[in-house]
Amino acid sequence: MRIDRLEPCMPTGRAFDRRDVPHGDPVAFVMSTHDRDDTPAEWPCRGSALVALPAPVVARFAPGGSTVEHDTDSSCRLTLGAWSWAGLAGLLLTFDADITGIEPAELRQALRSLRTRIDEGLMRTM
């Protein structure tokens, strides 16, 4: 594209109308916005597990809104949220490390369901 063929583009839409922050509280609005990469937000599904990796490693790759707590030099507790229990289970599995102390029961069940689905899929491909 040649620069001499460019023409200025005039706005064709409506100008932005300033509006109030939802519910009148900017802090509450930001805290309820998911995955802002800082503090925990309210997710429909929230769980935790001990991950067999050092806290600094997990903290580097944990999704926004997660909490990483030091347990030992080689493990930490990761608390995070997601839209579904299966999604939360998948997030835990991305660390490719042993996980124990999984809470709550819904997260344990989601991991069992994923294991079953994966096993069945592998059996069909053999």
Automatic annotation (TrEMBL):
It comes from the Bacteria. Residues 60-113 form the WCX domain. Pfam families: WCX. InterPro entries: WCX_dom. It comes from Actinocrispum wychmicini. This is WYL domain-containing protein.
